[in-house]
Design brief:
mainly alpha; Formate dehydrogenase/DMSO reductase fold; 0% strand; 14 helices; NrfD-like; single chain; 70% helix; 405 residues
Length: 405
């Protein structure tokens, strides 16, 4: 009964916290709300007209939505790079950032699920994915494994931080024997969600562009580069605009994680390029289309030749210790690395897998304004959710929110 009373008090105090703030905070939330409303309007058009309102066709059936889904799975998995040092290795320097990282994971997973719903055409078809009601086809279908690992990881990333914050709200310390087993589980689960997503693509025999043994490891490397890079940028904003102080050594340690992951990701990229172009076969046509164009079709060239220089530049800047310790350079490098991996892991991975088709036909894909509007709306939703979670968590961690007996 007392726990229920504390929970009600926490909900009340949280609502009070997220509805009050500075002028900049209210302008930020108003902007996100406006973008979400635009996204909802675009989605209503898609619901009315069907997926014909998008640029996707029977030739290219995965586009902007699945590109963002694939990228955000990696952002969600990256929280493990803070969970493992904090809860498993007892590194106190990561402790300040771990709740922020898990909040980002929750927001990213919510966006992942939203992009899947948008790509399916509408929520009315979701019953197909419900075990016992629809045709779940477990364990044969990789999609069912993806459903399980994503929802399971979302549950883990909600329950562990909630337990810790619930205890801190009461002025108590969380018991390690309660949350540490879940932290251990989340380490393996985070790797699992990304590997399952990679296996989903690798298992499609008709798409030789994805039939690559490096796809799974490279998914992890890019995730552990882009995710912590985003965490660094978020931490920089938080320590600038809130009373929650993040020490320099915390950011520097996360930067080292980003650096190593970015270097490994770049090495794997070079390995893939060598495999595709040194001794090309007809299976290399998708890669040729992506990097050089094919039969006069070159819609993706500006994207990939923007991503690669940004990727290389960011990795070089991060590699040099002196540059990495300059926070202005670090934040710039993290930003361009995040953009580069978003392009490379989105358009650079998903769309070329469909071009050319199994019969050699080239049908290019360009997202419509409807798709772009829905996509921006979902990103705004993720930012909105994270802002609410972070504002509540920061209030509890700095002692501003406390249960009053």
């Amino acid at each position: 009964m007392r726990r229920l009373k504390v929970f009600r008090s926490l909900v009340k105090d949280s609502l009070d916290t997220i509805t009050h703030g500075s002028r900049k905070y209210h302008l930020w939330m108003a902007l996100l709300t406006f973008i979400m409303l635009v996204g909802m309007y675009c989605y209503s058009i898609q619901l009315e007209q069907g997926l014909s309102a998008t640029g996707m066709t029977d030739r290219v059936s995965w586009g902007l939505y699945i590109s963002n889904f694939t990228f955000l799975v990696g952002v969600a998995a990256a929280a493990v790079m803070l969970v493992m040092p904090t809860y498993v290795l007892k590194d106190v320097d990561f402790k300040q950032a771990v709740l922020i990282g898990e909040g980002l994971a929750v927001a990213a997973l919510i966006m992942c699920l939203a992009f899947v719903v948008a790509d399916m055409g509408g929520p009315s078809v979701l019953w197909h994915m419900i075990p016992g009601i629809g045709v779940f086809n477990f364990p044969n279908s990789m999609l069912t494994w993806d459903v399980l690992v994503l929802n399971g990881y979302l549950f883990i990333n909600i329950t562990i931080p909630f337990y810790i914050l619930f205890k801190h709200y009461q002025g108590k310390e969380a018991k390690s024997n309660v949350y540490v087993p879940g932290a251990f589980l989340s380490v393996f689960w985070a790797v699992g969600i990304h590997l399952v997503t990679a296996f989903l693509y690798q298992g499609l025999q008709a798409r030789p562009f994805w039939n690559n043994a490096l796809l799974g490891p490279r998914f992890l490397a890019s995730a552990f580069a882009a995710g912590p890079a985003l965490i660094i940028l978020v931490l920089a904003i938080i320590r600038t605009f809130t009373a929650f102080k993040i020490e320099d050594k915390t950011i520097k340690k996360i930067a080292m994680v980003v650096t190593v992951a970015a270097q490994i990701n770049l090495i794997m990229l070079v390995s893939e390029l060598f495999k595709e172009f040194y001794a090309p076969t007809h299976h290399s046509e998708s890669a040729y289309y992506l990097f050089f164009g094919l039969h006069g079709k070159d819609a993706l060239l500006p994207w990939i030749w923007t991503a690669i220089p940004l990727n290389v530049l960011a990795t070089v800047l991060l590699t040099f210790h002196k540059l990495r310790n300059n926070f202005k350079v670090l934040f710039f490098a993290c930003f361009i690395l995040f953009v580069a991996i978003w392009i490379e892991k989105g358009f650079g991975l998903i769309v070329p897998g469909f071009i050319p088709g199994p019969y050699g036909k080239i049908a290019e894909y360009t997202p419509t304004l409807i798709e772009i509007g829905v996509t921006l709306g979902i990103w705004a939703l993720g930012a909105f959710v994270f802002t609410i979670l972070a504002k509540t968590a920061i209030g509890i961690e700095i002692g501003k929110l406390r249960y009053k007996n």
